[in-house]
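$ run holo --ligand "SN-glycerol-3-phosphate" --emit tokens
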Amino acid sequence: MKLFLDTASVSEIRRMWDVGILDGVTTNPSLVAKEGRLFEEVLREICALGVPSVSAEVVATETPGMLSEGRRLRALDPAIYVKVPMTPAGLKATKVLASEGTRVNMTLVFSATQALLAAKVGAAYVSPFIGRLDDQSQVGMDLIREIVPIYRNYGFKTEVLVASVRHPIHVLEAAKAGADIATMPFSVMEKLVQHPLTDLGLARFLKDWEKVPKG
Ligand code: G3P
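-- output --
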């Protein structure tokens, strides 16, 4: 399973990229707004690190605007995936962009039937938002458990990108469900790495090593 960071913070991305566990980055308008920086400048910096998949979202709500924004974003770097919302206009734009060879990440997906439509119009990724479903008292992960077999049934190439991830259990359950990708905040990815017993064990080994005679 590929692990993506859901952030527009270049410093966070650089830190995980340096560790070598990062497969991609997803951004959205809210995450970009938090940085207070020019969108395209941020995207260029992320792509310059060599991150192979960088999702950048259009903000137009009608198909022509989505197409022009999508084409502009795609032209920035070959690593760019254009994020398009799951609306009728978005489905139409995705079909056109996909036919032009642009990889589209269909976002704001909350049902398996929406995911089916994303695959039918040729989206490269589908982004179901599981945390936001959990927030509404609906088990978000059940949606992933529906989408994965539906895609398998028909041999769709669209990858399931689990979004709105809030904690490591979401990542674990997404992996068990066979999702292709999980995108998560920096804090969640950090928690995947850390374990108190690792720290304790290392400290004990180093302390014991002091007692070993040194030639
Ligand atoms: O980037 C889309 C998604 O991951 C947003 O997550 O936490 O705002 O629901 P969240």
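-- notes --
Residues 2 and 46 are 17 Å apart (CA to CA).
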